[in-house]
């Protein structure tokens, strides 16, 4: 009997509690929680992610084979990671990226420094550390400590993070003043140091390493302040799904070594082209190359190469000197041997038009003779190496690569095998024997760098020309806002 009474009471109680709970909830204002992955779900639904970035060498630019740049590599990989397409807005300067992320979404990737107090923004984990660096015009002596900056025409970029270091420094040196630009980018800032408009500038160390070859009159000064974290930005208030996905993606890239490889590829260039060599190259770029540019372009049209690549080969061979002669008898602008000239039907190796035409066709013939299994840049680099060392020695290096268990279709593995042709242990097992196998490795490396420099200078000239056309005054300092002393 007691059991039946208890069961009846519990059934009635559950009904009473349900009614009370319903009435209570009806009186409480409803707060709709933001779904954990609302923003990420929207990106998945529309099947693309919009990323706001900048058109700079360290972030994103159009290279010889399409879009490239350190952060572009990461953006593209992240879009693939999410399984969506990549939609870029690269029209930004540093100060316009965060407002675009807040108002439009989806993500900002533009060499952004971590600023924890930014309203409406969440930042990802750190991608790399950015160390502020003082650079100055060659000829100014003794720029080696903070007090030397007082009184200089000093510039930096607005909202890029470097001004934080200057503001901190101004507390110790109240008379310090500088100029900030909302319109320039790093290369344009360095150009103003180079031409004397500015005495010095504050940029990040990795930016200088990427640009230093193109501004030989700009010297490295000293590191300023503490490193800042390069991060990505996502809008807050729309769930944490996108932020967590980005952090997971970056963590995986760091864990498997991919991030380190990208940093090394873009910012870890060897300093084998020092300032003296760079100044000579840039002088020849202005004084010699214009004479032969149309010849390189014609040869490029006939052979399918980029004319700037052929020009880079010509510079590596002769410094664009049609009368160059080597101790072994190769001569002319493209340094053709007698047998090669005869094979290409070249009657006068010292004639620039014939030399460029013959060199381009010879490089094409080498590339065409390589096995079909070699593709892309691997094929191009091996053809260039064979132009230097001979096709027979390249095939010997392929044999050594196979013997070592590596990939004979990979330039990375071939360039490791080529120097072994100098060692009896290895060249004794090949058909063509000894070769100075280290030279083609340096040869290809130099041509690649010369090509980068020609391409960069050509692109920079166009950018600077466009910038000059849009300026409202001939006074370049009007592009800057002055940050005055505080004393």
UniProtKB/TrEMBL annotation:
Function: Murein-degrading enzyme that degrades murein glycan strands and insoluble, high-molecular weight murein sacculi, with the concomitant formation of a 1,6-anhydromuramoyl product. Lytic transglycosylases (LTs) play an integral role in the metabolism of the peptidoglycan (PG) sacculus. Their lytic action creates space within the PG sacculus to allow for its expansion as well as for the insertion of various structures such as secretion systems and flagella.
HAMAP family per record: MltF (MF_02016)
Keywords recorded for this protein, A-Z: Cell outer membrane, Cell wall biogenesis/degradation, Lyase, Membrane, Signal
Gene: mltF
SMART domains: PBPb
Subcellular location: Cell outer membrane
Keyword match Oxidoreductase: no
Span of domain Solute-binding protein family 3/N-terminal: 48-270
Membrane topology: Peripheral membrane protein
Active-site residues from the entry: 317
InterPro entries the record matches: Lysozyme-like_dom_sf, MltF, Solute-binding_3/MltF_N, Transglyc_AS, Transglycosylase_SLT_dom_1
Name under which the protein is recorded: Membrane-bound lytic murein transglycosylase F
Region LT domain, residue ranges: 271-487
A Pfam family the protein falls into: SLT
